[in-house]
Amino acid sequence: MVGTTHHRTGVEGVEGGVGVTALMVAAARAIETHRPDALARDVYAEHFVRAAPASAGWPVRVQQVPDGDANPLWGRFARYFGLRTRVFDDFLLRSVHRTNARQVVLLGAGLDTRAFRLDWPPGCVILEIDREAVLAFKHEVLDGLPAIPRAVRVPVPVDLRDDWAGALADAGFDTAAPSVWLAEGLLFYLPAVAETYLIDTVDRLSTAGSALAFEVKLDKDLLEHRDSPLYTATARQIGIDLLDLFDRGPRPDSAGDLADRGWSTSVHTPFDFTRRHGRGPLPERNDALGGNRWVFASRSRP
Ligand code: SAM
Questions:
Q1: Residue 3 has pLDDT above 50, yes or no
Q2: Domain total for the chain?
Q3: Largest Cα–Cα distance in the chain?
Q4: Does the C-beta of 28 come closer than 6 Å to ligand 1?
Q5: What is d(CA 7, CA 191) in angstroms, rounded to the nearest whole number?
Q6: Which H/E stretch holds residue 107?
Q7: Is 158 among the domain residues?
Q8: Phi, psi at residue 139, to the nearest 5°?
Q9: 279 inside domain
Q10: Whose CA is nearest to atom 14 of ligand 1?
């Protein structure tokens, strides 16, 4: 155990609690997929949305949203997820194609289908960590589809508040080989102690040539934006109170900690990528996305 203060009550699958956020991201990816100028395409995403009672009535195309792109949840926020998917797709592919790292660890993988979607070089192993009930739902849906992984895919059902490094080792992770890690839409749901353990563990298990990308929120006080269109629309339209799911305690400086340990890091706002790709969210007043940062780290020496 990496923390003793958390409790394990509540819903563990995709029907509620933090698991339902995986469905929200899947719906956003479905909407992105159907856009003519899609930043990323995920043909599996809408199948997850349709299969779960919690999300069966949610839109999977922006045309199904009465106010379309003006909708703070299914317009701007969904586009944010589309952009994020694309940016981290690019990070993962760049990392494996430019190095000899062949193990990819998706932390809090949720309904991520990169193992099925992306053009992996031969020999890649994708290890997907999430809680057991989330992965069980994912498999139930994928088993009913003609979905063939394009790399070796290894689900690792474990709670990231526990000693997940042991589960990763049991799943075949090779500590002697370089690795690529992704924590997308995850850290702000974890207690600070679990984030610190996660960064320590990635550092400990990463040999030279490894890379990590993750998302953080730098807001000093998340509640400052509680009236933002993004939070209020998400709560009102699909009943997800993100502020209630986020851990609101003080956060560690994970990018700084990695830099102190010799990793090269770069920190970007999502808006940097909106400008690069010519589409995606731009800053606005009372912006719940204003504190979001995407961090890219690589280790050139052990
Ligand atoms: N990374 C995926 C993506 O971007 O599509 C999923 C993001 S979703 C917003 C957050 C995911 O983190 C959920 O699938 C949830 O189950 C997982 N998660 C949150 N807390 C977790 C924990 N303590 N242990 C394992 N997974 C956790």
A1: no
A2: 1
A3: 53
A4: no
A5: 11
A6: strand 103-107
A7: yes
A8: -70, -35
A9: yes
A10: 110
| Domain-located, residue 3 | no
Q: How far is the CA of 160 from the centre of ligand 1 (A)?
A: 9
For residue 1, is it within any domain? no
- The residue segments making up the domain with residue 246 are 8-299
Q: What is the pLDDT of residues 217-259, one digit of tens each?
A: 999 999 999 999 999 999 999 999 999 999 999 999 999 999 9
Top mutation candidate among 6, 11, 18 for ligand 1, by most atoms within 8 Å of CB: 18
DSSP designation for 36: T
Distance between CA atoms of 57 and 204, rounded to whole angstroms?
A: 43
**pLDDT score, position 7:** 40
Runs of H (alpha helix) within 220-267: 229-238, 242-245, 254-260
Find the CATH number of the domain harbouring 126. Answer: 3.40.50.150
Q: Give the number of other CB atoms < 10 A from CB of residue 252.
A: 16
Q: Is the CB of 114 under 6 A from ligand 1?
A: no
Q: Which of 8, 21, 29, 139 to mutate to test the pocket of ligand 1 (most atoms within 8 A of CB)?
A: 21
- How do residues 24-38 score in pLDDT, each as one tens digit? 999 999 999 999 999
DSSP SS3 for 148: coil
Question: Is there an atom of ligand 1 within 6 Å of 222 CB?
Answer: no
The finding on whether 42 has its CB within 6 A of some atom of ligand 1 is no
